[in-house]
Design brief:
The chain contains seven helices and no strands. The chain is an all-alpha fold.
């Protein structure tokens, strides 16, 4: 599969060039996807993980290796380790607890999922 074919497949999976741009990153616009599709030889490596992640969530992963074959993806994957899903889920849960307890300005105590009480409320 060529990088162009992979990008076309990602567009099919995600539904539009706009969806691919959103998956690639906040600084990517539809014009970038058009350029990658019609002028460039491949998708720049820094945008591939987002596209792979979003297409994987849709059930048809389009791998970074297909979108940008010139990058050393084995080395990148070795360095980055396992996907950060557990820590991202934990961070979201901690943030929800902070919001629930009204502790958005106070950090949580180290090793705790509950905010500490202000000194005026402690016994």
């Amino acid at each position: 599969m060529t990088p162009r074919e992979a990008l076309m497949a990602a567009i099919d999976v995600l539904g539009s060039q706009k969806a691919v741009a959103a998956a690639a990153g906040a600084d990517v616009e539809t014009g970038h996807v058009y350029y990658w599709l019609n002028k460039a030889n491949e998708v720049p490596a820094r945008y591939c993980p987002g596209i792979e992640r979003e297409t994987r969530e849709k059930g048809t992963p389009i791998f970074c290796e297909w979108l940008c074959p010139s990058a050393d993806w084995k080395a990148v994957r070795r360095q980055s380790g396992p996907p950060p899903t557990a820590s991202a889920e934990h961070a979201a849960a901690v943030e929800a607890v902070r919001i629930f307890y009204g502790a958005t300005e106070r950090p949580l105590p180290k090793g705790s999922d509950r905010p500490s009480k202000p000194r005026s409320e402690r016994r």
